[in-house]
Amino acid sequence: MTTIGILGVGHLAGLMLRGLAGSGYRLVLSPRNAEIAAQLAGEHGCEIADSNQALVDAAEGVFVSLPAATGVAELARLAFRPGQPVLSAMAGTGLAKLQAVIGPARAAVAMMPGYANAFRVGPSILHPGDGFWQPFLAATGPVIAFDDESQFTAAATFGAFSGASFGWMAHVIGWLEGRGLPPDTARTLIAATLRGNAEVLLREDRPLGEIAGAVATPGGISEMLLATLADRGALAAWDEGLDRVLKRIGG
Question: Of 53, 64, 147, 233, whose CB count within 10 A is highest?
Answer without folding.
Answer: 64
